[in-house]
Amino acid sequence: MRRTRKIIPAALLALAVAACAPSTGAGAPPGTAAATPLPGPSVDADFDLDALVTAAKKEGSLLVYDSSGDIEEVAKAFTEKYGIAMEGVKSDTPQTAEKMTREHAADNVTIDAAMHEDGGVLVGQLIPQDVARTWVPADLKDQIPQENHSPLLALSKATVFAYNTKLSPGGCPVKNVWDLTEPEWAGKLVMQDPLGKPTVLSFFTQLDAHGNQALEQAYQAKYGKALETGEKSAAYEWIKRVAGNRPVLTGSDEDISGAVGAPGATDKKIGFMSISKFRNNEDKGYAQSTCAAMTPFAGFSYPKYVAVATKSRHPNAAKLYVHFIMTEEGVKHEIGEGGVSGNATVKPLVTPPGLDDWQARLFHTDPKGLLGDLQNRQTVSDFWRVNHG
């Protein structure tokens, strides 16, 4: 049975994170490296997979948290392979971070490992505070690009603009991201509330960090003139206009998928949703596809990292899980509807509808900007709140 968790408001988590996140050097601008270097990944010099399996079996069980319900399928496969009772719990990213922090402080750790979509909290809070740490399987180390080691990138997923293919048989009716700021699309963009979705907030901060030129060029292409704005950047101007155009906010991608692609849908809407929801095309008869030709991007990719709890009571089982998720046998349950493994030898399993070029059609998260995402989160949250309200 899938478990659901209450969303912790982003503002509340940000305050808690700010209290324990490492500070930058005096006068350092947002987004610079922490004063104390991030601890490097742990790699067992005498690694032996068979010995790890034996030790993990003696520990007997494993609990892993993830923001995706796919973790339940991963747990079944892990238990079947190793005979170790693994429980996979779907939990919203902010609550997982808070729970791991509280358990660590209380010396009462139940979560052995977790999949983290919120890289900012991972590198700004959990790892520096020794709540969690990165462990890289030595036998897979050379298959994982060096830039994916710290923190350990398990996979990348994507959130895309999607449309109903039956209502718009000629293709996505939105061609440019600035279209979504126009009156004709007022109230027709359906998306998760950014204040409860760290990946969307990180998209906003990353867009401001290295997406302004693309947004300016897209504006010029649509309107035939240069963007003029009183905001700090093109990204903030776009965020302001989207927020003010009355987007419909939900608490889940499943609700977005239903609003856009359900068989009974009669109103053209654009969904900003996870590619995992394209499974509804087959499972529920939905008609939805990526707005693949949108300028300058059709959505954004985001990293999902894996880390073990420092005080785990099942440390060997936690390591074995990390090893499992870094192989095709484990990660296939997470990327079955689309995604890219952090292990370069694992090839993508499927192509999400309309997204035939992952690299070129998505805006990509820069892992060097994760700390900046955390530092700037409250600013962009407040900016969204003011302009949506």
UniProtKB/TrEMBL annotation:
Residues 1-21 form the signal peptide. Gene3D superfamilies: Periplasmic binding protein-like II (3.40.190.10). InterPro entries: SBP. Keywords: Signal. It comes from the Bacteria. Transmembrane segments: none annotated. PROSITE patterns: PROKAR_LIPOPROTEIN. The keyword Signal applies. The keyword Signal applies. It holds the Pfam family SBP_bac_8. This is Iron(III) transport system substrate-binding protein.
